[in-house]
Amino acid sequence: MGGQIKIDPAQVNNAINELQQATNSLGVGSPNVIRGRNQLQFVDKLNEIDAQFKQVLTRYQDLLGRSTQMTTQAVNDFEETDRNIASQIHLGG
Q1: What DSSP assignment string belongs to 4-29?
Q2: Closest by CA position to 34, among listed 24, 46, 23
Q3: What is the structure's pLDDT at 28?
Q4: Rg, Å, the chain Cα set
Q5: Tens digit of pLDDT for each residue in 5-47?
Q6: CA 89 to chain centre
Q7: pLDDT the model gives residue 54
Q8: Which InterPro entries does UniProt cross-reference here (predicted)?
């Protein structure tokens, strides 16, 4: 079984950067609360749904951020392990 695992760190980092930019562009922004003289139940429910959506979006962005950090760390660990193995092979051969 002579397979290799090939990772192009630059390609992974580019993909992570694109994901982070897309995540940041989702933007929660400031609340768009509809107020004024209109006190209809519909408007109150719409504002509640908007607040919940923004909360979910913020959590999603946080999770994506954590995921990209973990991916970056995994790539760095993989590269370090690869260098260590190559060094051991070089020293042993």
Answers
A1: -----HHHHHHHHHHHHHHHHHH---
A2: 46
A3: 65
A4: 23
A5: 788 888 888 888 888 888 888 766 665 666 666 567 888 888 8
A6: 36
A7: 92
A8: DUF5344
* Residue, of 21 and 2, whose pLDDT is higher: 21
- 64, 19 Cβ separation under 8 angstroms: yes
Cα distance between residue 58 and residue 56, in whole Å: 5
**Token pair 């609360």: residue:** 33
The C-alpha atoms of residue 60 and residue 43 are separated, in whole angstroms, by 25
Residue 93 one-letter amino acid: G
Residue 1 in tokens: 């079984």
Residue 61 has a CB neighbour count (10 Å cut-off) of 16
